[in-house]
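Bit of a strange request maybe. I'm writing a small parser for structure token strings and I need a real example to test against, not something I typed by hand. Could someone generate the tokens for this chain?
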Amino acid sequence: MRAVFAFICLVVSALAQDHAAMSAAQSACGPAEFSFSVIADKTQHPVPQPDSGKALVVVVENLGQCQECAGGHSFITDVSSAVVRIGADSAWVGANRGNSYFFFAVPPGEHHLCANWQSRLEERSQAFAMANFRAEAGKVYYFRVRLFPGEADFSFDLDLVNTDEGKYLVASSPYSVSHVKK
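Reply from user aminoacidic:
Good idea to test on real output. This should exercise your parser:
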């Protein structure tokens, strides 16, 4: 009987640790109820430059060469208009829709980013990706968010890319304009 009780306590403790670890990892995000309306605006194409004393973070949503992603075969695999909201240091800072980019300034120092698929579908809204980096004033940091449908789920990531790749992704993408939904 004691062994069963000890096992139950161990399992409950492990589950609590997983929940605590998930909450800590998602602390780079903003509040769950926060959402954006987003338009990928092909008429403007700002070239990001850092403000004095700040670093610039550019986030590009990139569906890559995924043939099922762009106007996919079904509602389940179509991620061509996915809205991905981006958080930095516990606050949402903007969002992308489909292949698009946006940017924001950060002060020098350590920063934690969060990407979350904004969706009414619970499975999709549980997709998170995190990254961290140390920003230096005057530098530009390019991050790429990718979504790829798989057999039963989706692959979702947020990666720092080199400057050349980042500039290419920005040049080949429309600018995202996001506003908080009321």
